[in-house]
């Protein structure tokens, strides 16, 4: 019974430290534990013969303690529900953004493919090699632009965070691919 008192004091001291730091759950737990402690001490004093009663009441303290634990669990469930709702809204927003991006990609690629098709048809009907070379250069440029648009779109679907290093690497990649056909050297230096 003395160990019970020591154990309760240690728990109360720990709870007080957390409660003084502003932990609301520690305050609730301390209230419930206080009820359990008071009713438990009453039964201990009855056991030592310091209080003349034969009726134990520690179970009432346990009931109050269980209620405070239920309050803590309910608070955590409410918090989890709030987090799930917040996450759900975020997922819905991301879904709408991706749908918008897919629509924009469809429009962009559709326009590029239409231009490539028209230019290819014109090139088939033209007999001038100079005009064909210019047309095929434009077709090549448009197809490269379409590929870059698809790559950019696929990269935007990637949910990892973009860092400065990855941004520089992507700029370097696109710059080199775009200027490579014109035999222009492209470099990016960062410090």
Characterization of the model:
By secondary structure, the chain is mainly α. It is 83% helix and 0% strand. It has 5 helices and no strands. It has helices spanning 2-20, 24-48, 58-125, 129-157, 164-180. The protein is rod-shaped and about 120 Å long. The two termini are 69 Å apart. The model has no long low-confidence stretch (mean pLDDT 80).
What average pLDDT do the residues reach?
A: 80
Based on CA atoms alone, the radius of gyration comes out at 36 Å
Number of helices: 5
Helix and strand pattern: HHHHH
Q: Poorly predicted ranges (pLDDT <50, ≥5 residues)? A: none
Going by helix content, strand content and strand pairing, the class is mainly alpha
Distance between the termini: 69 Å
Main beta sheet: strand number and arrangement? Answer: none
**Global shape:** rod-shaped
Task: Tell me the strand percentage band.
Answer: under 5%
State the total count of DSSP E strands: 0
Query: How helix-rich are the residues, as a percent range?
Result: over 70%
Strand and helix layout:
Elements: H1 2-20, H2 24-48, H3 58-125, H4 129-157, H5 164-180
List keywords for this structure.
rod-shaped; 83% helix; 5 helices; 191 residues; mainly alpha
Q: Summary?
A:
This protein has helices spanning 2-20, 24-48, 58-125, 129-157, 164-180.
């Amino acid at each position: 019974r003395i160990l019970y008192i020591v154990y309760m004091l240690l728990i109360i001291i720990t709870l007080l430290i957390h409660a003084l730091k502003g932990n609301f759950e520690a305050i609730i737990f301390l209230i419930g534990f206080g009820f359990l402690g008071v009713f438990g001490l009453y039964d201990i004093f009855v056991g030592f013969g310091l209080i003349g009663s034969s009726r134990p009441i520690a179970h009432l303290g346990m009931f109050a303690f269980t209620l405070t634990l239920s309050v803590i669990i309910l608070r955590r469930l409410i918090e989890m529900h709030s987090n799930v709702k917040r996450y759900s809204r975020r997922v819905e927003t991301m879904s709408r953004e991706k749908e918008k991006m897919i629509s924009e990609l469809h429009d962009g690629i559709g326009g590029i493919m239409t231009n490539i098709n028209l230019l290819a048809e014109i090139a088939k009907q033209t007999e001038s090699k100079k005009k064909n070379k210019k047309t095929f250069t434009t077709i090549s440029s448009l197809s490269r632009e379409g590929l870059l648009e698809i790559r950019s779109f696929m990269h935007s679907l990637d949910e990892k965070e973009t860092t400065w290093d990855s941004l520089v690497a992507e700029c370097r990649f696109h710059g080199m691919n775009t200027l490579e056909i014109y035999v222009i050297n492209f470099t990016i230096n960062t410090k």
